[in-house]
Design brief:
Layout lengths: L1 H9 L2 H4 L13 H15 L18 E10 L5 E9 L3 E8 L2 E7 L6 E2 L13 E7 L2 E6 L4 E6 L4 E6 L4 E6 L4 E8 L2 E8 L5 E3 L6 H7 L11 E5 L2 E6 L4 E5 L5 E5 L10 H13 L8 H10 L12 E2 L5 E7 L2 E8 L2 E8 L8 E3 L3 E6 L11 E10 L11
Antiparallel strand pairs: 1-24, 2-3, 3-4, 4-5, 6-7, 7-8, 8-9, 10-11, 11-12, 12-13, 14-15, 15-16, 16-17, 18-19, 19-20, 20-21, 22-23, 23-24
Helix pairs in contact: 1-3, 5-6
Length: 397
């Protein structure tokens, strides 16, 4: 029905006609015009006030409590910032190899399995942008080769799916599909990617009101960076800049909106000094003076959470958002538009470097010991159910 509405409203222009460079509209051959009329006729038989099917009746999950479990040291040749988390815990992570990336899978205290080598051939990867662990299957979005590759936990290659077009892959969706964001006219559009043929199918219409509000821009360069993920009954669109999340069912109907309307995420004094120091260490890029750069940092809101790490589900159906405020990391737990609670975590800079299993959260953090030979370590928290009731959560404490 979403596809039908999209065709009817745009005469197949936006969905099926490739964008033409330097043109503000697309060409509509007569055949597409007549196909659109057929679609309008098919849609006209449906009642105009048709409502989405009821969602599964599920009781709200308990308020969660995060219990710190400890620190896990990654292999020294690994890149702990790009990783996936499995039960145990187990970690799928990138490792340095020559001028590119390879992959390794390890369980603390157990054997490390090297899955791939750097390259373009079967079972090889060039540059990994996203990793995933599902049961006994390990997956990677190989950005360098524009494909999704899969292995068993023993290192056996299960093949690759080349992508038909450039997509920012996010995470697995329904069986046989992955979710991602496709660059289109005026913004990033959520799509499902078929593992069978790499085809990308839009999940919402370009006239969708929530998508238009959070993701649409006047050009590809000006379009906000948004992400897509899963909630307990469908997919979501997440805007980390304004802390807005739209939860959709698989038919493309918007069911819940998470929009706590926090104040702009401006840096406090300590965070401002950290931003200026980082700017100095990076060689003072740009043409602004230090005073002007300081004013820019002071007046520019930061993201609440990163588009590189979209909200994720735990085993009880709670949606987790990990973000930063004034350099401090928080973890928010949501249930269908209701905030269950916020937990502050001792791990700076982790908003784009965290993963989740059914009952565990892991983040890439700086080691507590300043003399450690490790630049980054994993910190792990177990997700426990609480029988207590929290007060009204506040997003600006």
């Amino acid at each position: 029905m979403v596809l039908c509405r999209g065709i009817a409203s745009t005469f197949l222009c936006e969905r099926f006609q490739p964008e033409l460079p330097d043109q503000g509209q697309c060409v509509q051959p007569n055949v597409k015009f007549w196909l659109s009329l057929l679609c309008l006729a098919a849609c006209s038989g449906a009642p105009s006030d048709a409502r989405p099917a009821p969602l599964p009746d599920r009781p709200p999950p308990p308020v969660p409590v995060l219990e710190y479990e400890g620190t896990i040291l990654p292999p020294l040749d690994g890149l702990p910032t790009v990783f996936a988390l499995g039960p145990g815990p187990a970690f799928l992570m990138s490792e340095r190899e020559g001028g590119g990336h390879a992959l390794l899978y390890f369980r603390p205290g157990d054997t490390t399995v090297h899955l791939s080598r750097t390259g373009d051939g079967p079972g090889e990867v060039r540059s990994t942008a996203l990793l995933n662990v599902q049961g006994d299957t390990l997956s990677a979005f190989d950005f360098g080769n524009q494909r999704i590759a899969r292995w068993t936990i023993t290192g056996l290659s299960l093949g690759e799916t080349p992508l038909r077009e450039q997509v920012l892959v996010s995470m697995p969706g329904r069986p046989g599909e992955w979710l991602g964001m496709r660059f289109g006219r005026n913004g990033l559009l959520p799509v499902s990617l078929s593992l069978a043929d790499g085809k990308a199918t839009p999940l919402v219409s370009t006239s969708d009101s929530f998508w238009t509000a959070v993701a649409k821009g006047d050009s590809r360069e000006e379009a906000p960076l948004v992400s897509t993920g899963l909630w307990d009954s469908g997919f979501l669109i997440a805007d980390g800049k304004g802390y807005r999340i739209g939860e959709y069912d698989w038919d493309g109907n918007l069911r819940f909106v998470i929009s706590p309307n926090p104040e702009p995420n401006l840096p406090d004094a300590a965070r401002l000094e950290a931003l200026v120091s980082e700017w100095r260490r990076s060689g003072r890029p740009g043409k602004l003076s230090e005073a002007a750069r300081r004013d820019y940092f002071k007046e520019t809101p930061e993201q609440w959470f990163s588009h590189l790490a979209p909200p994720r589900l735990d085993g009880s159906g709670r949606l987790w958002v990990v973000g930063e405020q004034s350099g401090r990391t928080f973890a928010d737990a949501w249930w269908r538009g209701t905030l269950l609670g916020r937990t502050w975590l001792d791990c700076s800079g982790a908003s784009s470097r965290w993963q989740l299993t059914d009952n565990m959260i892991a983040m890439t953090c700086e080691p507590d010991d300043p003399g450690s030979v490790y630049e980054e370590v994993y910190k792990v928290w177990h997700i426990r159910d609480s029988s207590g009731v929290t007060g009204e959560p506040t997003l600006n404490k």
